[in-house]
Design brief:
This protein has 199 residues and is an alpha/beta fold. It has one helix and twelve strands; from the N terminus they run ββββββββαββββ. The protein has two domains: 80 residues, Serralysin-like metalloprotease, C-terminal (Alkaline Protease, subunit P, domain 1), CATH 2.150.10.10; 63 residues, Pantoate--beta-alanine Ligase, Chain: A,domain 2. The strands form three sheets. A five-stranded parallel β-sheet has the order 1-2-4-6-8, with no helix packed on it. Strands 9-10-11-12 form a four-stranded antiparallel β-sheet, covered by helices on one side. The protein has a three-stranded parallel β-sheet with strand order 3-5-7, with no helix packed on it.
């Protein structure tokens, strides 16, 4: 013990002028260092370890939350340098590891956004092509009333997506008419069949 040092806690140690170690099994090392928490350690001039199982490292460091290690205080923080990469779940992570993780996360996010954008683009293409195909089918002229068979083609463009269609209409009887057609576009083929009974 040094001048003014006081180790009043059970099995406590105080080293340094005016060092105080009132905590159970605590250690205060340094001028005016204080280890008040049970099993706390304060090392450095003016270091304070008031929480239980705490460690205050360095001059004027404050460890006032239980089960923590402090290397500074609010407004007077310090860096911990030369930290090896963590390997276990509870290890500290260094900046290199953090940057690598952020890079991986960014790459994954960008890839997923790219996939989503491609999916949206594909869906839009199919939808626009479908509209063009349906329109092309409706452009095929109907069979005239005095005719029994009509074959025709149709075409359409919707938002830059093109489609062509081939279809025919047959008048089966005076009252029955059947129509069928197929349209082709970048989104796929569309087939339609219809029948009407007139009286």
């Amino acid at each position: 013990m040094s001048a003014g040092a006081s180790a009043t806690g059970t099995n406590a140690i105080a080293i340094g002028a005016d060092a105080r170690a009132p905590g159970h099994e605590s250690l205060a090392h340094g001028r005016r260092a204080q280890a008040g928490g049970a099993r706390s350690v304060a090392i450095g001039v003016g270091a304070i370890a008031s929480g239980q199982n705490t460690v205050a490292l360095g001059a004027d460091s404050v460890a006032d939350r239980d089960d923590t290690v402090s290397v500074g205080q609010r407004g007077r923080e310090r860096q911990i340098v030369h930290v090896a990469p963590g390997t276990e779940p509870t290890d500290a992570v260094n900046v290199t590891q953090l940057r690598a993780a952020m890079s991986d996360t960014t790459a994954y996010t960008n890839r997923r956004i790219g996939d989503l954008q491609q999916s949206i683009t594909d869906t839009a293409r199919d939808a626009y092509s479908g509209v063009a195909a349906a329109t092309a089918l409706t452009m095929i002229p109907d069979v005239d009333r005095d005719k029994t068979l009509s074959i025709g083609v149709g075409g359409a463009v919707y938002k830059g997506h093109r489609a062509v269609a081939l279809g025919g209409t047959a008048r089966i009887s005076e009252n029955l008419k059947v129509r069928a057609g197929v349209a082709m576009s970048a989104g796929g083929n569309t087939v339609g069949v219809g029948m009407s009974w007139q009286w």
